[in-house]
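Re: the request from the purification team.
They wanted to know what the chain is likely to look like in 3D before they choose a buffer screen. I agreed to run a prediction and write the result into the notebook, where they can find it.
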Amino acid sequence: MVSRKTLTFRASFEFAEQTRFFAKSANLPLSAYISEAVREKNERQIAARMRFLSRRLGAESARVNREFEAAAETSFAP
């Protein structure tokens, strides 16, 4: 069984009404609509973090390769 938590937040009247409208238009309960929206946002944040870390790792890997190649050139030079 999946454990569930309750999240509570404050929103403007307009935001709440707009969200209710879109949930109803999507034929979803409000809680399901909000959960889906938050899940999508979380997935975008995770993807952005992975892109950031991938670029950082790539840069670090390139730096290490340059150092290794420089060390190899001086070690094997006649």
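For the purification team: The mean pLDDT is 92.
Please add any questions underneath this entry.
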